[in-house]
Amino acid sequence: MMMNLLSFCFILFFTLNLQAKDIICNKQNIYSVEAKVSVDQPELGTYQYYYQYIKKADPSVPTIIVIPGGPGGKSIDLSSESPYFDWIQLLYGFPEKYNAILTDPRSIGCNQVNKNLPIDSFTTENVAHDIVTIIKKLNLDNYVIYGHSYGTVVATFLGKIANDGIIPKPKAIILSGTIGHYFTNHKQEVMPAYYESWKNLRSLLPKKIQESFPQNDDWSDFENDPSRTMPLGLSVASWANFIFDNLTEGGSYLNGQLVYPLLTKLLLLNSNNESELEKLKIEVSTYTNETDETNPLLKLKPFHDSIWCKELEETKSPECLAQDFEFNNPYDSKFFQIKDVPVIYIHGQFDPSVPIKKAFYHFKNQLNENKYFLLALNGGHATTMVITDCKDLFWKSIFEKSTSLEEAIGSCLGVKLINPT
What does pTM read for this prediction? Predict the structure, then answer.
């Protein structure tokens, strides 16, 4: 397999959106709460934890709490002043009438001001309790927890915390791109999913375009000729990194039509639109193979590395080795049971970042009988938009109970309710 060539996409799952920029969180809907630095070390005191609270005129309307992926992703939106959801409404498939609480983890995004917290305080347990502090301060009892990717780990912790009576139980817990169990070896586990995702996408392309790319799912037929010229005169490495990066987004249905951004870009290769082809060429050419594992200290990300190395991957990466992190707190969802709360899984059929078996593991090991698994056909790791076509019915089934979830999903194109057994 082209292990060196595809090193870019190996780290995509946990580096996407991790490079936080210097952000001044000065929107009117940014608030803070006094949270514990560490629930296990009360002597460390408290700090100011920032979150975004997008409130509607009616304070009684439901609230959706968003927990981003990563570890180290962001959800707080600072792009514009708006009383509604900005880009979040489309990204997560939320209707405008609900409140939303968007979170950035400690030391990330709006919480960069907390980047000097002790590194041993960067744990999932502490991240979950930061959100517990918000729920308690606002006296929330009409809310949903919405976790994506690593956020599903945090959401599962919160489900257990609610079960223990520390906070009111949410109306539902929604898990998108679910991690049910730590990775034994991340590279080896995710690469077959990337190959399967590429195989699916390739089948949707015209034959002429298919023939211009490797025919083997793992690109091994081009492995011995990495300098081979490919479409637009670009290298195998650039195309591989571009495609395997963009596969993460996958496809979803919007207004009855399949929206697959990577497929749309590749279809340009059949066109004569020179300006669009030039844009594509520039984009692909930026995907060079620049990963340098010989100098991992240049790539340290304290929040991400602490959680990833200690909780989520058993095989030590260069970053984990450089910091001498021990894999001493392995995450396993079966030890965090969510009782008496509906659990709704949304997972892409071709999710390359979190193989679907990780989500199946979570589903099968939750003793809760009130659980649903939504398979997003053609979906990748970004699955939340798949409920856009049926979002009103979907959220009514959760908050108002006037519609069954089965009925709501039946009106969604590209989504199928399955029972992983």
Answer: 0.90
